[in-house]
Amino acid sequence: MELVDSHCHIDFSPLGEDIDAVLRYARENSVSHLLCVSVNMRDFPKVRSVAESNPGVFASVGVHPNEQDEPETSVDVLIHEAKHPRVIAVGETGLDYFRSSGDLDWQRDRFVRHIEAARQVALPLIIHTRDAADDTLSMMNDHAARDIGGVMHCFAENWQVARRALDLGFYISFSGIVTFKSAHELKEVATKVPLDRMLVETDSPYLAPVPFRGKTNQPAYVRHTAEYIAELRGDTLENIFSATTDNFFNLFSKARREFTLGVTSTISSAGVHGS
Question: What tens digit of pLDDT does each residue of 63-89 get?
Fold first, then answer.
């Protein structure tokens, strides 16, 4: 069985201090591929380098909605970087009213640029939304995000929001949050999302699933989220592995499936292990 971590940040500390160890432990836990997601342009070269150096690792390009001090990136720059062969998505992008406040027109303008760039290069979007679901979905609809689709990453909303995203052609990705005892509405969503529209992710180094909650998360732990969802749905682990892996490659069609995780990084040194 093989599994994909559809959203992680292995360039972040402490994971970035020993990427080889992170990838090795992921492979030992049946993770065959992962998507290292960009959050700003100053660190994008490292994200791209991680993907270039490691079979089975892909990259995205984009600027997170909370990167308020980041110089604004033009549509043309996003398009240029998105044409790199290892870049398979645009994002993460979206709206976040939890960490940012005041006049957020700059955040909405940034979101529009990402949608436009994704449409022009025909790559899916990675959507981040927090305390902003209505505005996020409205902007996705108004700016034709359905034309290229994408994923609602680290989904933590209710079924009504999930249905609106599904109606726009987007996938729903579950992180370790679904394993938390308090995530009652999210557990309901995990039982209702069609299996052919579901992804799993870690968002590592954050949000480690039970039984690692509170520890540094890493791609290997995505299997615990998959196991939990299988139990919630009364499904087999094999079926969840197979469906979410197929879904990843159906959505991110630029990704090449034949190259799986290997330990060939030239940019790591020492530090993170599976324990």
Answer: 999 998 888 999 999 999 999 999 999
Whole-number mean pLDDT of the chain?
94
Q: How far is CA 165 from CA 61, 137, 171, in A?
A: 22, 7, 7
Residues 201, 60, 55, 210, Cα dihedral to 10°: -20
Tokens 């609106």 correspond to what residue? 164
Structure tokens at 73: 């990136």
Higher per-residue confidence, 99 vs 119: 119
- pLDDT tens for each residue of 194-208: 999 999 999 999 999
Q: What is the pLDDT of residue 252?
A: 98
State both tokens at 239.
Answer: 């079926």
Burial class from Cβ neighbours inside 10 Å (0-12, 13-18, 19+) for residue 176 reads: buried
Collect contacts of 104-107 with beta carbons under 8 A, ≥24 apart.
106/68, 106/72, 107/65
Domains for the chain: give ranges and CATH numbers. Answer: 3-251 (3.20.20.140)
Is the pTM above the cut of 0.85? Answer: yes
CB–CB of 244/225 below 8 Å? no
Q: Which residues are within 8 A (CB) of 142 and not within 5 positions of it... i.e. 6 or more apart?
A: none
C-alpha dihedral, 102 to 95 to 136 to 111, nearest 10°? 110
Span 42-70, average pLDDT: 95
